[in-house]
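Predict structure. Chain length: 182.
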Amino acid sequence: MVDQLTIQTIGVVVAATSVVLYIANLLLASQKEERNKKIAVSMNLLQTLCDENTARSIGELLNSSWTDFQDFLSKYDSSVNPDHFAKRSSVFGIYETLGYLLKHGLVDKELVYINGGMSSIFMWSKYKSVMEMYRKIAYGSDMMTYFEYFASEMWRVKREHDHSFVRDQTLGLDFEKTFGSK
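Prediction complete.
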């Protein structure tokens, strides 16, 4: 016959096992929910990044030309060209937000990359010198740091996919000069 102590021990073990399984199930459900939230946030932002108007703005911004910072100011500063400023603010704001979310693990890097994140590589490379000057003369050193981070991360992903990708000859952009060869 089974004594009272054995029955109590079995009861405690079964209860403890049930609690452990319950906690494990909660953790798995929480991880799945977190993953689904990341995907939802990524998709919402990517809808904006992949939008036809955003794509048009990106194209226009990448095809802007200037010789130096003073030439940029005379053609594209907000005081002389509010339309260009609005396009820059909109597109750069998307990259800045994606950079923040990426740095804090709230979006999936590969998903963002394959859905337009690569364009940030071109944009940062094109506007890096302008951003650096604006940081010095107007907005401070933290201006668009998440955009810079985002573009650098997209560069890393691009280099993992295609190590031979180093420049865009059509726009005259040298990505290794901008980001380094890592």
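Summary: Residues 167 and 174 are 4 Å apart (CA to CA).
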